[in-house]
Design brief:
The protein is an alpha/beta fold. The chain has one domain (about 5-285): Spore Coat Polysaccharide Biosynthesis Protein SpsA, Chain A (Alpha-Beta Complex). Helix content is about 30%, strand content about 20%. The protein has 9 helices and 10 strands. It has helices at about 25-35, 50-60, 75-80, 110-120, 140-150, 170, 220-225, 240-250, 275-285; strands spanning about 5-10, 65-70, 90, 95-100, 130-135, 155-160, 175-180, 185-190, 210-220, 255-260. Strands 1, 2, 3, 4, 5, 6, 7, 8, 9 and 10 form a 10-stranded mixed beta sheet that branches. Helix 2 packs across helix 5 (about 140-150). The protein is globular, with a radius of gyration of 18 Å. GO terms for molecular function: glucose-1-phosphate adenylyltransferase activity. This is Glucose-1-phosphate adenylyltransferase. It is an enzyme of class 2 (transferase).
Length: about 290
């Protein structure tokens, strides 16, 4: 089992910053949504960020080394999780920061694959190890994160039952879906799926499976695909699903979809803030960092 978790937190948060008229948010919450990285928005007890809860689950899952990829203006992360670039102690977790720099000629980051590539360039030890990767604005369960640590598959992702997601149908219908073989090995990822072809993408349990960007990677074999990731023709970004599929093409039967059936709270837009606050109050009323895992 590996001990490394890379957290993607360097995005532009453009959907979160869009104008929204909501009567269930305070002026302070709206200001944070407009100014902070999504994982730092204070949705928890005493205004603590969502990222606290993700780190708590990561610790419960057994991770030791956390690499948070921040943007060039990401100094606020250091106020919460440690002032040094490397090896800050946060409740027994070692927190290090990687910076996703924006390439010359662009006004926003170059995507999740570029973020991870810049991180492994800054921490090359990851290229000889296994590591997990996830978003900073999703709250993955400790059980899901532990499954990524424990799987013997060289690469893996959490393969979520689409029907278990507590999101509006319109939102769920936009999720990319995974095509798996009878052994849950990844064959393909389909973006913008249409209803008429969903049947052929059901897995052996009859479920439609989606990825929420929770991965395990073999750093040694992934590096070349990260480095050579093509730009997505529509979104003009380099994306991790592309890297994963290119890796599968070169190394078939090395990427398993680990089936999970549970909701994953998500902070994408201002409309999500109240829902995430309610979820945390119900399921995480108190974070006890000193409890035994």
């Amino acid at each position: 089992m590996h001990n490394n978790l890379v957290i993607l937190a360097g995005g532009a948060s453009s959907r979160m910053k869009k104008e929204a008229v909501l009567d269930n948010l305070s002026p302070e919450e709206i200001a944070q949504a407009n100014e902070r990285s999504k994982g730092l928005i204070g949705v928890g007890a005493s205004g603590r960020p969502l990222l606290d809860y993700l780190l708590w689950n990561a610790k419960k899952a057994g991770y030791k080394n956390i690499y948070i990829i921040i943007g060039e203006q990401g100094e606020l992360f250091k106020e919460f999780y440690g002032s040094q670039m490397k090896n800050n102690d946060f409740h027994g977790l070692s927190i290090s920061f990687a910076v996703q720099y924006i390439p010359e000629g662009r006004i926003k980051p170059f995507g999740t694959a570029d973020a991870l590539f810049q991180a492994v360039e800054q921490y090359p030890e990851l290229n000889s190890q296994f590591y997990s990767v996830c978003n900073s604005d999703n709250l993955y369960s400790a059980e899901a994160l532990r499954a990524l640590r424990e799987t013997e598959s060289p690469n893996a992702f959490i393969s979520y039952d689409r029907d278990a997601m507590d999101f509006p149908l319109e939102r769920i219908s936009r999720f990319a879906i995974a095509k798996l073989d009878q052994n849950n090995q990844l064959l393909d990822i389909l973006e913008k799926p249409s209803e008429d072809i969903l049947e052929e993408y059901k897995d052996s349990e009859g479920k439609i499976r989606v990825s929420m960007n929770a991965f395990k990677f073999n750093g040694k074999t992934l590096y070349t695909h990260l480095k050579n990731c093509p730009v997505h023709p529509e979104r003009d970004e380099k994306e991790l699903p592309t890297v994963l599929l290119n890796s599968v093409k070169e190394n078939p039967q090395t990427t398993v979809g680990i089936p999970f059936s549970e909701h994953v709270p998500d902070l994408t837009a201002k409309e999500d803030i109240a829902d995430v606050k309610t979820y945390l109050a119900k399921y995480y009323p108190d974070l006890n960092w000193n409890s035994k895992n």
